[in-house]
Amino acid sequence: MFNALVVNKNEEGKTSAAVEQITVDQLPEGDVTVAVEYSTVNYKDGLCVGPGGGLVRNYPHVPGIDFAGTVEASDNPNYKAGDKVVLTGWRVGEAHWGGYSQKARVKGDWLVPLPAGIEARQAMAVGTAGFTAMLAIMALEDHGLKPGNGPVLVTGAAGGVGSVATAILSNLGYEVAGVTGRPEQADYLKSLGATQIVAREELNETTKRPLEAETWAGCVDAVGGDMLARVLGQMKYGASVSAVGLAGGAGLPATVIPFLLRGVNLLGIDSVMQPYDNRLRAWERLAKDLPMDKLEAMITPATLSDLPGLGKDILKGQVKGRVVVDVN
Ligand code: NDP
Which residues form the Enoyl reductase (ER) domain (predicted)? Predict the structure, then answer.
């Protein structure tokens, strides 16, 4: 018997989450069983711990879209007992039971060996949010972003994606402007390397002007909606925006003018189905380019029993940086 956070749905369709004892026999099919050490809390986890947001189809359900730990048993030729591994994406924690559990059984093809220089706890401080921030920055670089091009905007800066993006960009030598709706987090963002703080109100209203002053050399956008539409019109000529999230809305009330007159690029970033080679590339970059002292400053520690509350908090945009869940 071991502990897991189990979400049940009652006959009225209402969900409730609690720590329960489960057995290995209850785990879903897979060729690798992992003794989970740490998990984390992403925006999507908030949905899956609560009513599911359309992501969870079957109950009872064990959420947790990320985990890191040690392989306990493996029928997969690429992994053996004792290997340190990390998992993000592949709809684990949504369609397949996830990491809010002391053990998880998954397809070995979904795992990535823990990169040298990153421990299980640090890997979960990164988690899907930080991994996606890295993918977003890699996409901007692949489209020509270089230090010296000008300031890079990070929206939703005090959140998970935003905090990791800010720390990496600053470490790579970029000027980073962080957009936040929480002015009290300005010092935190500056400690991660932000050189400019932009108030959310300045950017979350639409404007009738499709183009404004050319301001940003790149953007990692965790917010979407009105803010993304506004930012597109403020990008420098030929600059790119990595569209990561929808914390501010899934709509995009924009015009095509920034694409046509300024050659602006809107780059879609998906972490869930990301091919293996690029996953390895992103984790290697994280080990090299994310300063571990800054990652440490983002961490709020938690346990399995804290998760129902944290799930609600992240959906309200009230989680700062990254939560690391010690499942044991
Ligand atoms: P967090 O909740 O940690 O961060 C989101 C941040 O966005 C908040 O902290 C807040 O930052 C800001 N924010 C929240 N609500 C609003 C609003 N109404 N208007 C403007 N800003 C707002 O979540 P994550 O960092 O984990 O995820 C961010 C987004 O990225 C989510 O939408 C998530 O679903 C998406 N995502 C997508 C992935 C992909 O594969 N494409 C992978 C991971 C995440 P502040 O207080 O500083 O303003």
Answer: 14-325
